[in-house]
Amino acid sequence: MHISDNVRELQPSATLAVTALCRQLRASGKDVLDLSAGEPDFRTPEFAAQAGIAAIEQGFTQYTPVPGVQSLRASIAAHLSRSTGKSTDPAGVVVSNGAKQAVFNVCFTLFGPGDDVLVPVPYWTSYPEIVSLARARTVLVQSNTDTLKVDVAALDAAVTDNTRGLILNTPGNPSGAVYEQAELDAILLWAAERGIWVLSDEIYGRMCYSAERAPSVLDADASLLERVVLVDGVSKSFAMTGWRVGFSYSSPALAAQLTSLQSHITSGASSPAQAAALAAYQDEPRVHEALRAMVRVFRRRRDHAANALRELLPKADFPEPDGAFYIFVRVDDYYQPGRAGSIEFCNYLLEHTGVALVPGAAFGDDRYVRLSFAAPEAEILEGIRRTGELLHGIAAGAAST
Ligand code: PMP
Ligand code: GLU
Question: Is the distance from the beta carbon of residue 201 to the nearest atom of ligand 1 less than 6 Å?
C-alpha cells in the first residue's frame, strides 16, 4: 500500500497503545494491574453529564459555530479571567476536539518546513509527532535530572536560528513537574526576546498538590503574552476525556486562523459535548467541589505510591510529582540483558507480573517508566509490590499504606 510522506514516519500513540493492550489482555482473562492510564478513573460530574443528555433530548445536535458555541467560549474566557485576574476575550477561545486537537491546530498553524520547535524531555508522547505532521523539526531540550524541568540555560543550549516555537507542559505528563511562576516568567521573557512562540499545555493545571492550581502562563505580565498560546480542556480536571472538548486561548487574530484550519478538519467539537462542558464551566463551585475531591484522592495515592516505591524499589529514583497523576520513575539500575531498555523492561514486567506501565521511550527518555496513579489505590500498591518482588525479591506485604 502506498502511504504518503505525510504519515510515513508517524508512530501510533504509545500511551493509547498500552491502554488498548491492557484492555485486550483483561478481556482474554489475564490478571492485569493497569498503571498506564492517561485519564482520571472518576466519573464525569453528574450535572455536566446531565447537561449533555438534555442537549441531545432537546435536539441540540447540529453543527455549532466552528470555534465553539458562543456561550461556551464566553464561559471559558470568564473562567480564565476569574482564575488569573486578567481580562480575557472570548474571541481568543477556540474549542476543539480535545486538547489534542488544540495542540495540533496550533502547531499546524504556526510551524512548518524549516521551523524548529523546542520540546523539553520528557515530553508528552504526541508533541514530536504533531510537530512532524506540520513538517517542522522537533529539537529536544534536556531537562534537569532532579526536577525534570528546563530553564533558560537549557533552552539557550538548544535554540537554533530556525527556532520558532517552544512547547511547555505544566504540570507535566509524564513528569508531574510544576513550573513555578518565576520559572515561567523567565522562560516567557527569554522566548519573547527571541520572537519564539510558546504553546503552554496546561491540561493538568488544576490537578496540583501544593496549591489550588499550578501557575499559568496567563499569570505572567501581559507584555510577555503576545506570542503565547494556552491549551487546556475538560478531559482531566472534570474527568471528561471521552467527551472530547479542549480549547486554545490566544490572540483573536491567531484564533481566527486556528478556526479556519479547524473548519476543514473536524468542523468543531460535538454539540452535546459542548453543552456538557458549558455546564461545567458555568457552575464553577460545583465543578470545583468535584475536582477538589478527586485531587484529594490523587494526592493520597501519590503519597502512598511514592512511599511504596521508596521502600520496595530502592534503586529506582523519581522526583515527587506536584501535579497530574503520574510518577516518572528512573529504573535503569534494574536493567539487565533481556530487559535493558524501557520497552523491554515494561514487557518483562507485564509478562511476569501483569503490571502495565508506559515505557519512558514514549516520552523521550529510555531510562524511565511512567506509573499512573489513576487506578484504585489497592491496585497501585499491589502493582508496586509485585514489581519489587520481581526485581528485588523483596518480601510480599512490605508495602504499607
Ligand atoms: N496534553 C497532555 C499533556 C495530555 O496528557 C493529554 C492527554 N490525552 C492531552 C494533551 C490531550 O487531552 P485531550 O483528552 O483533551 O485531547
Ligand atoms: N494523555 C494521556 C496519556 O498520556 C492519554 C493518552 C493520549 O492521549 O496520549 O496517557
Answer: yes
